[in-house]
Amino acid sequence: MTLTQFAAELNGFFPGSPPITDATGISGRFDMTINFSQSVLVQPAPNRLRPACRAHGRDLVVRRIEGQLGLKVEKRKVMAPVLIVDQINDTPTEN
């Protein structure tokens, strides 16, 4: 798969997390294998701990990507469209 496809696949592991995108500029298709325990990703936890477990699982996968594949994963601030809802009426009104 390409690195763009690989990044898209990684996003499926962590829904609701900031998206992972390919900014390497490396073209071509690669056969990649990452070794990690999926138990961290599917480990049941009380509701108040689930975000922490998900973040820990994401960090584990990122460390494996960097260590095993030699790819660097870094956070970036980017411009993105945003929809802001500042008020919702319980009953509809005429336009």
Task: Tell me the layout of helices and strands.
Layout: H1 3-13, H2 39-42, H3 50-69
What would you say this structure looks like, in words?
- The protein starts with a helix and ends in a 26-residue tail after the last helix.
- By secondary structure, the chain is mostly helical.
- The mean pLDDT is 78.
- It has helices at residues 3-13, 39-42, 50-69.
- The protein contains 3 helices and no strands.
- The chain is elongated, with a radius of gyration of 18 Å.
- It has one domain.
- 37% of the residues lie in helices and 0% in strands.
- The longest helix is centred in the middle third of the chain and has 20 residues, at 50-69.
Number of H/I helices: 3
**Total strand segments:** 0
Q: Oligomeric state of the chains?
A: single chain
Cα distance spanning the termini = 51 Å
Low-confidence parts, pLDDT < 50 over ≥5 residues? Answer: none
Structural class: mainly alpha
Return the domain count.
Answer: 1
**Mean pLDDT over the residues:** 78
User: What global shape is seen?
Assistant: elongated
- The helix fraction, in percent, is 25-40%
Provide the succession of SSEs. HHH
